[in-house]
Amino acid sequence: MTNQTLSELLILFLCALSSARVFFIEDTRRDPISVVPLIAFILSLLSIAAFGLSFAELLVSAMALNVFIWNFRALLRLKAQLVIDHYNVLFIIVSILNLILTLLLGIYIVLNCPVKVDFNKKFSVKESTYSYYGNFSSGFKRIEKIFQLNSATVKKYEKKAAAISESDRGWGKCIIFVPNEKTSIRTYEPLFAKLAYDGYTVYAAEFNSPDYTFFGDYRDFRLWRRFFCRKDKISKQTSLKNTSLTYNALSSILKEGMGLKKDSFVFAVADTGYKDSNLTLNSISPDLIFGSFDLTSISDYKSPGWGPVEQSDIIRAKKLGLKRDSSLYTASHLAAAVEQQVELTEKATKAALE
After folding, report:
1. Residue 68: other Cβ atoms inside 10 A
2. Cβ atoms 34, 71 nearer than 8 A
3. Which residues pair with 134 in a beta bridge?
4. What does the alpha-carbon distance between residue 127 and residue 193 come to, in Å, rounded to a whole number?
5. CA distances (Å), 214 to each of 205, 210, 277, in order?
6. Which of 349, 187, 336 lies closest to 266, judged by CA?
7. Are 182 and 230 in contact (CB under 8 A)?
8. pLDDT by residue for the chain (354 residues), tens digit each?
9. CB 303 within 8 A of CB 44
10. Alpha-carbon span 83 to 67, nearest angstrom
């Protein structure tokens, strides 16, 4: 299970524990478990802050809030050091209903949990994370102080030194990727794992600066922007404009000290969701990017613009008529298409230089 799924199940466990206490109270005593719903609700908010607002996170937070509201009076009694000798009938009925709903929601979360990518054991891939502050107009700089607000995150996926070989298909080549407004880096991690396993070094970035906007109102707030980008329609012009903006920013970050060699072969990959995007990301930074490829152009790609949802977003996969697939077939298929385009571009580049 992924960290997000584990955090959701922890919150639901706390909700279930609080609701189930009506079955095991026996003697007159204080009710310390009444503080558990408050802890669960706080953890649900922290989970949203860590992973962003999604349908599953919304359900879990709503459940935690519901249990907290029904236990608020019990929390006040605990604070006043009052003794509980029994629970009233209404509270018992509501607690039983909350327990049932919590268990059902837990089953729903488990059945729809993403496929966990084992970077270490299965793929021998190392994952590194770098945090930046700033904005698109003034640029992004590495965070070095505690109170600097994170505005961009860059993740690097590379094969472990002990496992890499010059015979690897992607040895010495770099791929850069920025997820579109509807997805996140986590959505494409199965793809990154396959590419890194084949020897490519993958740089993926997410941006959350105040000037990264799609609506021009409250919906652009970083915690729930992706939620509204999935829910509300965004114009193609706005989407592609921000795509160019983010790849330009990532190119600048790579140039300013990500350990990228000057003679590295860098290839940009995107997933715009538009068949006719005509996206040429190499024109954004021609001194760094040798070529670009839009995953949406793959003819048998069943979830264009959404990533390999059969592995990373099971709820979305079901909406698209797809099933959960732990074999990582879609990620492998996308990786093969990307690698083919990289090789074609490399050959064309060498031919042009001759």
Report:
1. 21
2. yes
3. 140
4. 9
5. 18, 11, 18
6. 349
7. yes
8. 678 889 999 999 999 999 988 887 655 466 788 899 999 999 999 998 888 888 889 999 999 999 999 988 888 887 777 666 567 788 889 999 999 999 999 999 998 888 888 887 788 899 999 999 999 988 899 988 887 888 999 999 998 876 666 666 667 789 999 999 999 999 999 999 999 999 899 999 999 999 999 998 999 998 889 889 988 888 888 888 898 899 989 988 888 777 676 667 889 999 988 877 766 776 777 778 888 899 998 988 999 999 999 988 999 999 999 999 888 899 999 999 999 998 888 887 767 666
9. no
10. 21
The answer to whether the beta carbons of residues 222 and 181 sit under 8 Å apart is no
If you compute the radius of gyration of the chain from its CA atoms, what whole number of angstroms results? 24
Six token digits for residue 5:
């799924």
Structure tokens at 146: 């505690």
Q: How far apart are CA 338 and CA 204, in angstroms?
A: 15
